[in-house]
Amino acid sequence: MTVLVTGVGVVLPGGGRLADLGRTEAGSLEPVDPRSRINRRGLRYKDRATQLAFCAAEEALNDAGLYAPAAEAPVRAEIGIVVSSNFGNLDTVCRVTGTIGAEGTLAASPMDLPNASSNVIASSLAIRFGLAGANLMLCSGATSGLDALSWGRRLITAGRCRQVLVLGTEPDNETVREFTDTPRMLDGAVGVVLEDAGTAAARGAVPRLTLGTACRGGTLADCVAVLAAHGAPARWYPPEAVTADVLDGLFPGATRVDLAQVWGASSGALGVLQCAAAIGWFDGGGAGPVYAVTGGGRDSAAGHVFTAPPGVAR
Amino acid sequence: MSAVIAGAGAVSSVGRSVDDIFTSLCGGRSGVGDLRVFDRTRYRAEHAYEMDDRPPGGPDVPLRTTRWLLAAIEQAARSGGLGDDLEGVPVLVGTGLRELRSVELRHRGAADIGPADLHFGPAVRERFGATEIHTLANACAASLSALALGADLLDAGEADAVVVAGTDMITESMFGLVERVSAVPPDRVRPFDRDRLGAVMGEGACAVVLRRSADARPALGVLRGVGINCDAYHVTAPSPAGMAAAMRQAYQRADRSPTETDLVMLHGTGTMLNDEAEATALTEVFGDRAGRPLMTAIKSMTGHTSGASGLLGLIVALRSLHTGAVPPTLGLENPVPEAAPLRIVTELVEGPSLSTAQINAFGFGGINAVAIVERAR
């Protein structure tokens, strides 16, 4: 079964969109105001990661021709969600802990209760967009974004879902910067809609990218070896926080685009960001294949092959 | 689908092994006690189902959630014939609250942990040599959701064996916010009782080994199917329709009918909303046979072990199918009207021949996971 991406949504600082993922410098890093992107109803009391996820999801579902406001449509049990985020609710957890320590539980806000649960992003997306299929929240560290694509594909091949919204998001705030010892986090969200080629063709969806081989390995070298066996890529997206001297010898001849270097530490969002960047590359006439790698430290490693959508002669 | 459950392990407030836990539950022994781990002056609640293995008399220490997980995986892997080397074996960990307790301790200046400690991949890798580890943060449906994904990996031929686990400990933020929305903090979990006051959090970890085909060891049971979905309804309030849809999906994937089910491990958190919604969903799915299967809610003794609870229920179900003993539901004196058609046991039941069990797990955000297992033949 061939699984395709048929919709993509990108929400990045400075209003960055899909086409901007080819850039080598980010330019403006003005934080996105979700209220300027989507209907502000339902944004109140949602954490930053969830608000960003709402924006990217609406764009991705629209792009796939699957958007329907939940208030106006019945829930759709055949569409699932896989979200990857490692730090989405860290600020809520630390803030509430601080409040309780200082003033006791009566000083805490009941509106924080859903946000204290790590799955709040995935389930909030389901509610806002009426998507009642399998609903997964991955917090697996550096490999989590590419893993999310693989689990999304498996939900389709296992017959659990007809389409799956796969979304990566990480917020930028003081709590996360301090915890990760990172000067700047992504503060963005990226969503893609997956479906099998037959389903896409039957409903006339426009394919944007084909998901190729995915792999997991103990080390970066393990994943690079698996990907290299598929031939040389046109370009590749490396993991973040790996030094250039380690990366320089890998995939000789292929252009390396370090998305985290441009857009900020992306953690659980990186793999989905890499997939979106590959779509931007194919949109611009780029020829594939494109490889993505995440992890490589204590988290082991993940790799993925992305190829041009079917029907595109390149 | 069908996968063999080849090994199991568990630690909780009522025992540090599967056998100990099952003995405690059948004996009606609850793990509830005084709240010890937090500064009591900050809380109205006075009780929890803690696994208090902190240094005696000392403050809380980080990474206990991870330690419990490793203990449960070790028990499961050894009893499932995998030993301590899990190289090449995918490990799927379901959790509601990850290592957020350690993040809280760090926030207070009481722990030195980093981003790689927040999920469980690095620790599992360093202990067992596994390289494919996933942390699935699916709230209180987490470990059964992970079970669904593990079963799918076997079905697709991507692995011959997988370890599925669940682990959770009480965080201050969740414990405090649950208390914040309670009129009167409950002193224990009283599932399906009219006078229940809500959930009390518990702690524990558990794991199973799933295999595509039976090895030489006697199997603990057979996993027939897992249904997973989302209500897409409300962030904290459950929907009976969504729960019922997850149950039907589980039976469809198991190629079984609810009429064949002998035992239901209830989610039964003792919250106002869950118990009525769960009872309504069961009555709808089982129809005029709702009174046939035995049902029990072990959270009345383990507390709400969050993401670990579904798989813990499954492990207990396998022991019940094997022995014919079904642990009681404590504290259930006057059932809510919705539960009137159901046969929830309040005393230990011994002796019946039980073949098939359904296990429920429902989480915040309306995520549902339901598993169907059978006795090993």
From TrEMBL, chain A:
Signal peptide: none annotated. This is Beta-ketoacyl synthase-like N-terminal domain-containing protein. SUPFAM superfamilies: Thiolase-like (SSF53901). Coiled coil: none annotated. Keywords: Transferase. It holds the Pfam family ketoacyl-synt. Residues 37-170 form the Beta-ketoacyl synthase-like N-terminal domain.
UniProtKB/TrEMBL annotation, chain B:
SUPFAM superfamilies: Thiolase-like (SSF53901). The keyword Metal-binding does not apply. Gene3D superfamilies: 3.40.47.10. PROSITE patterns: KS3_2. Residues 1-375 form the Ketosynthase family 3 (KS3) domain. Keywords: Transferase. Pfam families: ketoacyl-synt (PF00109), Ketoacyl-synt_C (PF02801). It comes from the Bacteria. Belongs to the thiolase-like superfamily. Beta-ketoacyl-ACP synthases family. This is Beta-ketoacyl synthase. It comes from Micromonospora tarensis.
